[in-house]
From TrEMBL:
Species this chain originates from: Variovorax gossypii
UniProtKB keywords: ATP-binding, Cell membrane, Membrane, Nucleotide-binding, Transport
Pfam family, one: ABC_tran
Protein name from the UniProt record: ATP-binding cassette domain-containing protein
Record lineage: Bacteria, Pseudomonadati, Pseudomonadota, Betaproteobacteria, Burkholderiales
ABC transporter domain boundaries: 14-251
One Gene Ontology term of the molecular function aspect: ATP binding
Length: 280
């Protein structure tokens, strides 16, 4: 007997509908998001791009469950953000902008911290899991007992990434993942992220001001302006959208240089070069 074929409803990882974010200030109300919509499917690397103060970081925090929108609907894997999955693990891992490691903890203690907080597993198992993650981000066990103060900027990002991945979240949020890194460390961190995205089948939502990182990693770009997502699509599609912010951001000198670098890469290396996907 054949089973009825069901539509694939499992593809949605993030579903945001009718989102409003309004802050009260001494000068009155500040509307940051006005009826914003965003839909992200499994396996995407979606980058949020927008001018300063357009609410990119606030949106990441809402997906993570650290902040509630004023109005509207945010769902991550069919659940309210911040809830644990059926297995008790976190659905979302986040790499904060400056790594945000605990300075009094060793590298391994930092990576293990979220698992230890759960108070479900014995110490030896937690230590082992943290060592596996340390290796996964390209750092050897000789770094396990170091203090964050003894690490380079690139290593701090890697340790923070290992911590974000400790509970094997299917969704990873990255806030300015390459900010503060020199070009070499930045390229190497992008290589690591690209590899992990592929190997772990992660869905990634990223905020970046760095156009090289943007073009290097994104499978889709969403542009925030006028308090909403004005366009989403592959790089070519977004760049062709007529809006003053897009023109200034992508077609100024900085954007032109990053685009040229993108075109110089061998075909197949850069996901942003793939055929345009329909904006959602
Ligand atoms: N808790 C808060 N209370 C009041 N206003 C806030 C709060 N959090 C954020 N804002 C305001 O919301 C706006 C959006 O902030 P957000 O940090 O998300 O911007 P952003 O797009 O990430 O900007 P940038 O690219 O400069 O980091 C800003 O004007 C900020 O001052």
């Amino acid at each position: 007997m054949s089973m009825p074929v069901r539509p694939d409803t499992d593809a949605t990882v993030v579903d945001i509908r009718g989102l409003w974010t309004v802050f009260q200030s001494a000068d009155g109300e500040q509307v940051v998001h006005r009826d914003l919509q965003l839909h992200i499917d499994r396996g995407e690397v979606l980058s949020l791009v927008g001018g300063s103060g357009t609410g990119k970081t606030v949106l990441l925090r809402q997906i993570l469950g650290l902040e509630k929108p004023t109005r509207g609907h945010v769902e991550v894997l069919g659940q309210e953000p911040g809830e644990l999955s059926a297995s008790g693990a976190a659905n979302v891992g986040m790499l904060f902008q400056h790594g945000a490691l605990f300075s009094a903890f060793s590298v391994l203690e930092n990576i293990a911290f979220p698992l230890r907080e759960l108070k479900l597993l014995p110490d030896e198992l937690i230590r082992h899991a943290a060592l596996v993650k340390l290796q996964m981000v390209g750092l050897g066990p000789q770094h396990a007992n170091k203090s964050p103060a003894d690490l380079s900027g690139g290593m701090i990002k890697r340790v923070a990434l290992a911590r974000a991945l400790i509970m094997d979240p299917p969704l990873l949020l990255l806030d300015e993942p390459t900010a503060g890194l020199d070009p070499e460390a930045s390229d190497s961190f992008c290589d690591l992220l690209r590899g992990l995205h592929r190997e772990l089948g992660l869905t990634v939502v990223m905020v970046t001001h760095d156009l090289d990182t943007l073009f290097d990693l994104s499978t889709r770009i969403a542009v925030l302006a006028d308090q909403k997502v004005i366009v989403t699509g592959a790089a070519r599609e977004v760049i062709a959208y007529p809006h003053p912010f897009i023109h200034e951001y992508f077609l100024g000198g900085r954007g032109q240089r990053a685009l040229e670098a993108l075109h110089d890469k061998p075909a197949g290396q850069s996901p942003a070069q793939q055929a345009p996907a329909a904006g959602r």
